[in-house]
Write a structure and sequence with these properties.
Largest sheet: none
Number of helices: 1
Number of strands: 0
Strand content: under 5%
Order of helices and strands: H
Keywords: Membrane, Transmembrane, Transmembrane helix
Helix content: over 70%
Oligomer: single chain
Distance between the termini: 60 Å
C-alpha cells in the first residue's frame, strides 16, 4: 500500500517536471501562432 503512495507521488512530480520543462516550448509555439495570425490579418 505504501509503495502505491510513493509511486503516485513520483508520478505527480514527473508530470510537474514535464510541465515546467515544456512551458517555454509551449509559450514559444503559442507566440509564433499568434504572430502568424496577426500577420494574416495585416
Amino acid at each position: 500500500m505504501h509503495d502505491a503512495h510513493v509511486w503516485e507521488f513520483k508520478r505527480r512530480q514527473l508530470i510537474i517536471d514535464i510541465m515546467i520543462a515544456g512551458f517555454p516550448i509551449w509559450l514559444a509555439a503559442r507566440e509564433r501562432a499568434i504572430d502568424r495570425q496577426l500577420r494574416g490579418f495585416a
